[in-house]
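_Full entry_
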Amino acid sequence: MAEFLKGKVVADKIKEKMKKDIEELKKNGKTPTLGIVRLGDNPDDISYERSIIKNCERIGIEAKVFERDINMTTEELVSLMEELNNDNTISGVLVFRPLPKHIDEGKVREALSPSKDVDCMHPMNLARIFEGDLSGFAPCTPKAAMEILLDYGIDLEGKNVVIVNRSMVLGKPLAMMMLKQNATVTICHSRTKDLPEITKKADVVVTALGKAKFFDEKYFNENSICIDVGISLDEEGNLSGDIDFEKVSELVSKITPVPGGVGSVTTSILLSHVVEACKRM
């Protein structure tokens, strides 16, 4: 039976450190404040927004919601970014994505100040990761995956790591973070040939396809460390990761559950970026 790499344990440690940092900031007259930009009233966005606000309240971060019409123009959204850049009461900005198709996301990304870009939208923050510089704000999900591995004392030096995702939001920045830890990294995707043969030979496998229970026992061995970033609904309508947890957890060495794994840490990473942004102001 695998050891479960639970995200809550890691998230709680991040939150405890944040609380201490927030106390110090408030002594100096600073309050970490997150500006949330939401276009329209998508139920998933509103649910996520409520979750973030609740987490902010628990640790002493303020949250301000900037709700705008879904039909607003690129120019109007760029103007809002500039307004938030110049607002000294806002430490960090989170823009809910994907943006509507008529919005030029590239212009919006570049309009947001890198110093307030707590979700790594700006090309400059992303570029830093590819240069091996982690002093900026990394994408929250890959950073959450790394925090779990490091917190559980998993030494990545010399390990063979397979990441099944090639996006700029997850797979590519995560590969750079793994390389920073001296891992040997292979990036795979939905069109990779003989995927089970590749993943089965790896020490660490990160799955992020968004296909419920896609990965069964044939993708892993008894020493596999499995980091499941995927999240979707299975055939019964239950929340599930990419990995068939019940089957695979009987075989592998370590595994993150879904829910309760990487996702549990992601919001804490986001909020820690808000606190760090406030420190730098």
